[in-house]
Amino acid sequence: MGILEHGKDNKPLSLKVLQFLLLFLGLGIALSILSMCMLRFAELKNVLPVVQSRINPCFQQQNSLENWIRPLSNLHHSMNDAELFWRASFVPQMKILPFKRTPKIAFLFLTRGSLPLAPLWERFFKGNEELYSIYIHNLPSYKPDFPTSSVFYGRQIPSQVAEWGDISITDAERRLLANALLDISNEWFIILSESCIPLHNFSVIYRYISESRYSFVSVFDDPRSVGRGRYNWKMSPVVKITQWRKGSQWFEVNRKLAVDIVTDEVYYPKFKQFCKPSCYVDEHYFPTMLHIQSPHLLTNTSLTWVDWHRGGAHPATFGKADVTDKFLKQLSEGQRTCVYNNQTTSYCLLFARKFSPSALDPLLKLSSKYLGF
């Protein structure tokens, strides 16, 4: 046998040994290079500044109690209505709270554009910052120009087009309620328009609403064509004609009823499908739904005064010439009778509409004398 032996693959043994040595040598060189790189990186790490990430994991904020009880500083969220209503539907089951809570009134302004009576409202709100919150739903195309010092600055919610008498008006009101429910301090919710004014100072209105055992929703059975005549029999049996009610869209509800409104998946679809002009959904949906679900929690009256004596599809509008001493005295003092906490009283109305922009100057001039602010 010769010096060179062959393996099973017919390669000389010396060649195999040579390949092994080269492989071993290459591996050693690679390890050496890797070791030098790691050493070099360690040296650089000691001299290079460490940049801390400014991105906080979102789950840490969501798990924080503060995140749940702190009102949103920026109302321009990206939630659609389905997401918003779902988020607003969260209801704590425990009555004892693990934090201090000051109940607030949420003032919900349903407007087309500007708030021409804003200076009067600014005077009304002044000094009561811990007891109220403001939300505005206007046309998406409207760009508000409130100064940063205004209580209305940054209080516009993501809005959609809302048409009078259409389901979109109801959607806008539900949207306002849902946004306000995200602040757990909001306990009472009032729907207002840009033509509304307060008839008393803030302290009177806060005490009146906060001490009431009931919510103020106008609910009545109207047998005429503009009442029961608007009922669609296709809504039965979910909504029977004996349950059909009418009322004002300018209402006040407590937190429980606000949650009931935004979570309603029983009555809303029926009204959306079958209550169309000349069935004005904003006059029937809320009164009917709340009358069916929670009649024992309603006063069946509205806190907002309007004048229908002039006739027509809309109430009377009051301008500069209408706002006199006599007129405001009658509004603020009133000569009406209603029930408050199961007792008869003449103290029935807290707001009034409709006031045109021209009414602002006389309102500001006479408000301290007759409205108390």
UniProtKB/TrEMBL annotation:
Recorded hits in InterPro entries, A to Z, give: BC10-like (IPR044174), Glyco_trans_14 (IPR003406)
What keywords does the record list, in alphabetical order?
Answer: Glycoprotein, Glycosyltransferase, Membrane, Transferase, Transmembrane, Transmembrane helix
Q: Which GO terms describe its molecular function?
A: glycosyltransferase activity
- Chief localization: membrane
Asked if Calcium is a keyword of the record, the answer is no
Look up the record and report any one GO term of the cellular component aspect.
membrane
Q: Under which name does UniProt file this protein?
A: Acetylglucosaminyltransferase
* Annotated organism of origin: Solanum tuberosum (Potato)
**Lineage in the entry?**
Eukaryota, Viridiplantae, Streptophyta, Embryophyta, Tracheophyta
Which gene underlies this protein? LOC102582902
